[in-house]
Design a protein that fits this description.
Layout: H1 4-12, H2 18-35, H3 46-57, H4 61-64, E1 69-73, H5 81-87, E2 92-97, H6 100-113, E3 118-122, H7 125-131, E4 136-142, H8 147-154, E5 158-168, H9 172-178, H10 180-186, E6 188-198, E7 201-210, H11 224-227
Helix pairs in contact: 1-3, 2-6, 8-10
Length: 230
């Protein structure tokens, strides 16, 4: 396997097998091929993919491996949703993105990789959140928006008792402070944070728990979660 960190992670968690390894290899090839036609990622080398895409995406494995359903909001090229779907075959993943060419690419990846537990949805975050309220056990999101905006887009999707899993970098704690009001309004509370190192940098998964239903007025339309965050 070309991806040293990813293979190490898979072996340490007892989930390494030939099919899984082949899927990661094929996924890299699919992204690389599509990247020559339209911009999916600035990271194109195998070492960068290994650490900054695959290994980083898999950081939420412990939080989603026992879930029934997970929504990956703003999935882009499929991170973290597709790597997690590869290693969690019994979990149903929904990959949401607002750009049709990206969801078309995700559909092609899902078919090529044989991921029967995964589907792509072309929709704005507000649209999907409004029509799938409290449907998912967890919602993941990586490199999409500041935490207060992200919370408004994701919280309505999550069942009570479910998890909001926000991948963040060095400004994680500043974003948490800014999102305190949003958490209170949207029915979230901080559960814990998972800290790990990726490509020599400290990374965080900020784990929120859904403790009460999100008021029906959220998420707001008209791009307000982004232009006027709670």
């Amino acid at each position: 396997m070309r991806f040293r960190l990813t293979e190490k992670f898979l072996r340490e968690n007892g989930i390494f097998d030939e099919i899984t390894a082949e899927r990661f290899e094929k996924y890299f090839d699919l992204v690389s091929e599509a990247n020559s036609k339209f911009n999916l990622t600035a990271i194109t080398d195998t070492e960068g993919f290994d650490s900054k895409h695959f290994y980083d995406s898999l950081a939420a494995y412990e939080y989603v491996k026992n879930a029934r359903s997970v929504c990956d909001m703003g999935s882009g090229a499929g991170f973290p949703g597709i790597p997690l779907a590869i290693v969690c075959p019994d979990v149903s993943f929904t990959l949401v993105d607002s750009l049709k060419k990206r969801t078309d690419f995700l559909d092609a990846c899902i078919k090529e990789l044989g991921l029967s537990n995964c589907k792509a949805v072309h929709a704005r975050a507000e649209e999907h959140a409004s029509s799938h309220r409290e449907e998912y056990d967890a919602c993941t999101s990586r490199a999409v928006a500041p935490l207060n905006t992200l919370a408004e887009l994701c919280a309505p999707l999550i069942k009570k008792g479910g998890l909001f899993l926000a991948y963040k970098g060095k400004n994680a704690h500043e974003e948490e402070v800014a999102a305190k009001n949003a958490y209170d309004i949207l029915g979230l509370r901080k559960k814990e944070e998972f800290v790990y190192e990726c490509a020599g940098e400290k990374r965080f998964i900020l784990v929120g728990e859904k403790i009460s239903s999100t008021p029906v007025r959220y998420p707001r339309g008209g791009n307000k979660p982004r232009t006027r965050p709670i």
